[in-house]
Amino acid sequence: MGCSGDAQEKASSSLQTLNIAKSLSSEFTKPSALVNPLSAGHRYKLFPRPIRGRCTVTASKFDIDWITKDNVKKIKVKGIITAKQGLLPSVGVTDLLGVSLLVELISAETDPRTLMEKDPVKDNARRVLLDAHGEDQYECVFDMPEDFGPVGAIRVLNQDLKEIFLKEMKLELPDGSVTFTFNSWVAPKSEDPTKRTFFSNKSYLPLQTPEPLKQLRKQELETLQGKNRERAGEFEKFERVYDYDVYNDLGNPDKDPELARPILGGLSHPYPRRCKTGRKPCDKDPSAETRKALEFYVPRDEEFTTVKGAQFTGTAVLSALPAVFPQIEAALVDPNMPFPHFKSIEDLFEEGIELPKDAGLFPVIPRLVKAAAEANDILQFESPSLLDKDRFSWIRDDEFARQTLAGLNPYCIQLVQVSYIRFN
């Protein structure tokens, strides 16, 4: 009886082994008919048996993907990108071909089989909608593996001929919609062939950052620091270098020694400071930096919008108003009429200043000021966006810190009495 039981166990074990072997054999491609199989009952010595040690079999990532990739179920994921083309949006050749934007989704998880980053899923986004406000919508559809995991980053390559402002991207995932906030200009690949990386809104501590995102975050940080520049020299418009420098470009010693100006800022007095530009030093004074007439490098995302630029330019017209209208000068700079409280300053934006009827002012006033109440001629200033958001923001610590990082010196605000800038 004991021998019979052992025989049954061995037979059952052999049957299980055979079934497992059959299930595994389905994962591999059968050999071609052109290859002669080994004849049964013959022994073939393919390789000499090693005398010592063990034979180790390894599989590369390509081998594992070749076996398993076709068996992974894929789902359709739709993405909608909201963008803005600028002042004169137009349909280009790349829009007609459907290759305006190349979009890649990066997984925040590693592949459990290879312990490496998962392959990104990509698609070309094509413009599908242009509304009256100048905003475009680009649509793309991804074939995403079911086990792709959460999307940790999105990479974009602008294949158009002009820059584009990307606002956000909405992904329609099976678990719900996820929105990635961009709010950034992306240069065309003819100017910048590198892919722009945008991360999800989720924050991580350094030790908790997913492994597939660590290298991407490092590259992004080095780009902002200017370490990934391919060439030296002045920064291009599309570059995103955030660095500070002292004011050593206020003069022009190469043109005339009398136009040399002292350097403002430094270790002992860190303010004021300006954006670093990468321009070459002056020939006669290497501590000073050359400069163009009115051109300054500013990271593209920090430049004025079109409306803000028009408002800023309009200050030149406003500066001439007191000379044209003595009534305005008396209302604004009369020493006997100081602002008694902060509310009187807010009245400039809310109530305005009454003007004479025959002033003929409104045709020459730019968008920085506005007219309210047609019955009365009122000079009403356009309120700053910061004041619209929070009227007490100027006394808060975060606004103080913002001005500090922006290069202003909130510790000591004084009237400028001598100008260091002189162009002859």
Descriptive report:
With 424 residues, this protein is of the alpha+beta class. The chain is 24% helix and 20% strand. It contains 10 helices and 13 strands. The protein has helices spanning 2-25, 61-68, 93-97, 211-225, 306-313, 315-324, 326-333, 342-350, 385-389, 397-405; strands at residues 74-84, 101-107, 121-130, 135-145, 151-158, 164-173, 176-186, 196-199, 244-245, 274-275, 353-354, 369-370, 378-381. The strands form 3 sheets. It has an 8-stranded antiparallel beta sheet with strand order 7-6-1-4-3-2-5-8. Strands 11-13-12 form a 3-stranded antiparallel beta sheet. Strand 12 and strand 13 (378-381) form a beta hairpin. The protein starts with a helix and ends in a 19-residue tail after the last helix. The model is unreliable at 28-48 and 370-375 (pLDDT under 50).
Record the SSE blueprint:
Blueprint: H1 2-25, H2 61-68, E1 74-84, H3 93-97, E2 101-107, E3 121-130, E4 135-145, E5 151-158, E6 164-173, E7 176-186, E8 196-199, H4 211-225, E9 244-245, E10 274-275, H5 306-313, H6 315-324, H7 326-333, H8 342-350, E11 353-354, E12 369-370, E13 378-381, H9 385-389, H10 397-405
Antiparallel strand pairs: 1-4, 1-6, 2-3, 2-5, 3-4, 5-8, 6-7, 9-10, 11-13, 12-13
Helix pairs in contact: 6-7
